[in-house]
Amino acid sequence: MDKFVVRSKRKKDEEESPNCQTRTATDDSGESSKTEASPTSNTSSCTQHHPPYPDIGSLQHQQTIPDNKKIAILTQKWTESHSFKFPARLFGKKNRRFQATWLKDFHWMRYSPSTDSVFCAYCVLFTSVDAKEKSFSASAITVWKNLLSLAKFHENLSQHRGSLIAGEDFLRVKKDKGDSVASMISSSHKKVAADNRYGLMKIFVILLCGRQNIPIRGHVEERSNFIAILHEIARSDDKLSDCIDWLAFRAGSRTTYLSPEIQNEIINIVGQQVQDSIINACREAKYFAIIADECTDVSTKEQLSVC
């Protein structure tokens, strides 16, 4: 009887220690296993399916992240995610796991094994600390039930699109190793300035409203004729659309150069240019005429108009 007990325990130990799948099942059930602490020949095979990029969950609250880690997180793909055994957690009455297919559906999504949660790589690395939306960046997503709807909502945020633009610019600058740092900064600044000028020139759609006697504003600023025409143009102009998203991202949705104050400033500038053009034409001409007419308004006051 004693010999039988010894052999049974030894056989059980031999089955648990080298098998990576058995070790994962033990982790899911919450029970500790002595084989984790003992060195085995298959230890490397148990961890080879982990993400190749740094654990984004451990970098989430760091103020400065090295550029090499940023590049690794943005460029390295987890091709063996389907072989990784994601831990199961109880949601309501069902055990749910993270699905590897979600990483393929959303290229910006990164899984953190240490926290069993997902993040947006671009928003974690390039969104400001005081950003309004915290999901997928400062706040990790750990609930798998509504992950698809949350991810689709996150993709449509201007904050997320701005982070994507910032990440693509970062990778482009880092890949261009032939230029000096000063040259890269200068070229990046020139590109941003050129894009901003392009967007500002498109904002002068306000002149179209003036020529056609179209009211600029409405009862609600977001539904004014000016905003509606501008966004309609942006639907067929990707550069303008990116510029509007970028301005909203950098300014925290507070200064987008589309406010009534900016509209009035543009009208005053254009009006001053028209007035200066008329004055210069009069100065250069040998003769010029002025047409004046007056009429009486409802209050019986004379109103004089000069052309």
From TrEMBL:
Name this polypeptide is given: TTF-type domain-containing protein
Compositional bias segments (type: Polar residues): 35-48
TTF-type domain: residues covered: 94-177
Biased composition (Basic residues): 1-10
Stretch list, region Disordered: 1-60
InterPro entries xrefs: Znf_TTF
Organism lineage: Eukaryota, Metazoa, Spiralia, Lophotrochozoa, Mollusca
